[in-house]
Amino acid sequence: MRLVLALMWLLHWLPLPILGRLGEAVGRLLFRLIKKRRHITLTNLRLCLPDLSEEERMQIARRHFEVYARSVLERGILWWSSEARLKKLIQLDPAVPLATIQAGPTILMCPHFVCLDVAGVAVMLESSLCSIYTRQSNAVFDEALRKGRSRFRPVKLFSRAEGVKPIIRAMREGLPFFMLPDMDFGAKDAEFIPFFGVPAATLTAVPRIAATTKAKVIPVIATMLPDYRGWKVAFREPWENYPGEDINAATRYMNHYIEQEILKSPAEYFWAHKRFKTRPPGQPSVYD
Fold it and tell me: What residues does each domain of the chain span?
């Protein structure tokens, strides 16, 4: 892993158009080699986008591997490039909502697009934050990831096992909560909520924490700009009257919102994750 990190450090000096094309070439190779992840990706696309033809889904899957591999190499820019270079490459739409963050508890709801690390850096160039962090299995990579994500501002990272109490304390101390709401972490603290019409174990943390803290929920969507010009981080308007009284309905609203964003840039969503790993009682695996 030290050699991989050393290679990423060397590559981060390259102009983005060269690094991006290199990453896409690696992605095309991985699409051929990693059959398991290719199968997961295509299964997710068949479940979520059934109206497309098999060839259309295959094109999205190939492109997904390209942009995902590209995003991994581009993390070197996020971890080691200067603040000036990052500000040139990250296009904010509009600016980081500092006024909302400073006015009270805020949840920055960031779905799993491949550029989500760019969204985190865009916020940390302007503000500290708190988030949930899953420790990486490789200690060297884990340390690099932590340092890369916290080099501009102090960041409070909590493990999922600690629960929501430290997150709520941090939010009440003025830190926005950078939340990734759309991965399958099992049935605990989750409900089976439709995702593109398929029951998906969905964390209810966003509406529950919003209800507890009276937080504003601001969607944050990170995507790639065309022609290798960098990345766009869009801060949407805070959701109004959210979450309301019905946590299940609020979670459905969140999933539906994420679906609409995915349809705008389908290849950039993280399809290689087993989004439907946890099944409702009695239902078989969709990945076997």
Answer: 2-268
